[in-house]
TrEMBL record:
Transfers mannose from GDP-mannose to dolichol monophosphate to form dolichol phosphate mannose (Dol-P-Man) which is the mannosyl donor in pathways leading to N-glycosylation, glycosyl phosphatidylinositol membrane anchoring, and O-mannosylation of proteins. It comes from Chlamydomonas incerta. Its main location: endoplasmic reticulum. This is Dolichol-phosphate mannosyltransferase subunit 1. Residues 20-190 form the Glycosyltransferase 2-like domain. Pathway: Protein modification; protein glycosylation.
Length: 252
């Protein structure tokens, strides 16, 4: 599909929604219904047409069945489910979601309620006002923040961002956040080019967007630590992040 013009999304063909919200899930059974309810309230407030595309990697907790219930409740135009045979990772989950999404604008958000749907109207308003290709949620500007993290985790995240900004010359204040809005064409281009995994993935995407001259805007978000289920954060993630940073330094 052609890339929408800046600030002027391609008119929706045949009732296609303006916005596709792609939500990757792995063991999020307790979260998807609450998320969907909150998204539907927020999007009504934004006055925007939308669909939610869940991408589930055969979650052992039966997340896919919970999403099927949502399809029954909200309708198959509003909720879509893409299932994959095993845990294949976030980067490719976004790609699979994009392949099944019909909106001109794509919003990526986590399922665990860390990305509060109340921020959705701000992403949309910012894009409409500025014509940006990418609107990135930031914890590190006035009005943004994190809730539920201990000091060590706060310092790690902040430190990783400062280090990466310094090394890569990034102008975006939150490089590792995943709550973002993209034009369809911009996301397709960025996903095709991005090689990193884990936290370095979000950083590579936004740095590539900057380096390729895309217009990036930011909106403050408050990130809330997940209430239910397990985060993927572990020592391995830190190691991957530093490796990813070094690779970008050499390769971008
Ligand atoms: N489809 C899919 N979703 C995943 C995978 N790994 C994580 N997720 C989802 O991606 C989002 C972010 O993961 P999470 O564990 O909360 O990461 P954290 O908040 O950075 O610790 C959540 O919605 C997860 O359910 C994966 O391999 N495949
Ligand atoms: Mg999370």
């Amino acid at each position: 599909m052609a890339r929408p013009r800046r600030g002027n999304p391609t008119p929706c063909a045949d009732g296609a929604p303006e916005y596709s919200i792609i939500v990757p899930t792995y063991n999020e059974r307790e979260n998807v219904a609450v998320l969907m309810w909150m998204v539907s309230k927020a999007m009504q407030g934004a006055g925007a047409t939308y669909e939610v595309v869940f991408v589930d990697d055969a979650s052992p907790d039966g997340t896919a069945d919970a999403v099927r219930e949502l399809i029954r409740a909200f309708g198959s135009q509003r909720v879509k489910l893409v299932t994959r045979p095993g845990k294949l990772g976030l980067g490719s989950a976004y790609g699979s979601g994009l392949a099944h999404a019909s909106g001109s604008w794509i919003i990526l958000m986590d399922a665990d309620l860390s990305h509060h749907p109340k921020h959705l109207p701000a992403f949309i308003a910012k894009q409409r006002a500025t014509g940006a290709d990418v609107v990135s949620g930031t914890r590190y500007q006035l009005g943004g923040g994190v809730a539920g993290w201990n000091l060590v985790r706060k310092l790690t995240s902040r430190g990783a961002n400062i280090l990466a900004s310094f090394i890569l010359g990034a102008r975006t204040s939150d490089l590792t956040g995943a709550y973002r809005l993209y034009s369809r064409g911009a996301l397709a281009k960025l996903l095709a080019a991005t090689k990193s995994r884990g936290y370095a993935f979000q950083m590579e995407v936004i740095v590539r967007a900057q380096y390729s001259g895309m217009r990036i805007e930011e909106v403050p978000i408050v990130f809330v630590d997940r209430l239910y289920g397990q985060s993927k954060l572990g020592v391995g993630e830190y190691v991957q992040f530093v490796k990813g940073l070094l690779r970008l330094l050499v390769g971008l």
